[in-house]
Design a protein that fits this description.
Blueprint: H1 12-30, H2 37-43, H3 48-52, H4 58-82, H5 87-104, H6 106-114, H7 129-154, H8 163-180, H9 192-206
Helix pairs in contact: 1-4, 1-6, 4-5, 4-6, 4-7, 5-6, 5-7, 5-8, 5-9, 7-8, 8-9
Length: 211
């Protein structure tokens, strides 16, 4: 006669945290395409209904995973920037931090930029708090690069005729390097030296020319 496996007991906050940790591990190891909220809850020894009290559907849990990913990315960018004094050095360090984050956790990065958000309301506010939290976390990571570039423009280090183009360009360059380096999508691979050269080349292109 087989014995039933006893169900674990979680306090309110503990189950949410456990679901989020398990979902993050799943995404990092296997990607979001095969993700199942039912399997996650069963793996924790709780009923799917208990999980649905915290996350009403799989995308709401994946959105929370993506939110934490952006928070981790913003923390990595902040730590990289804080170790340098000049805006060009800070931008180079932030670029390396972004690429390193993406290459270490490519499936998480794919989720962060691929998770569908709920519909937006007429006043451009997210339709639920989960979407709002994800948007805030993504915005904070974006502003970390924006702050470095704006500081560089104020100091006369970077060209200032198209501020938004510089920020969008910086994000596009580092994100592209992270994605290209994922799973050997470049012939011959991409080394740290390759990343360094591309970042320095791009930064030299936005550097202000002294009169």
């Amino acid at each position: 006669m087989s014995e039933r496996r006893p169900r674990r007991r979680y306090h309110h906050g503990d189950l949410r945290r456990a679901l989020l940790e398990s979902a993050t591990a799943w995404v990092v190891e296997r990607g979001a395409d095969t993700f199942s909220l039912r399997e996650i809850s069963q793996g924790l020894g709780v009923s799917p209904m208990a999980a649905y009290r915290h996350f009403p559907h799989r995308d709401s849990l994946l959105a929370a995973v993506a939110q934490q990913g952006f928070e981790s990315l913003e923390a990595a960018l902040s730590a990289a920037v804080s170790g340098h004094e000049t805006p060009p050095e800070q931008l180079l360090a932030a670029g390396h931090a972004y690429v390193t984050f993406g290459r270490r956790q490519p499936r998480l990065l794919h989720l962060m930029f691929g998770i569908p958000l709920p519909p937006w309301t007429q006043n451009d506010a997210p339709a639920d708090e989960g979407a709002a939290a994800l948007a805030r976390a993504a915005g904070a990571a974006y502003r970390r690069l924006e702050d470095v570039i704006q500081a560089g423009m104020r100091a006369g280090c970077f060209r200032s005729e198209a501020p938004r183009a510089l920020v969008v360009g910086a994000w596009a360059v580092v994100h592209g390097l992270a994605m290209l380096g994922d799973a050997g999508r470049m012939t011959g691979g991409m080394s740290t030296e390759d990343v360094e050269q591309v970042l320095r080349y791009w930064i030299s292109g936005i550097t202000a020319v002294a009169p």
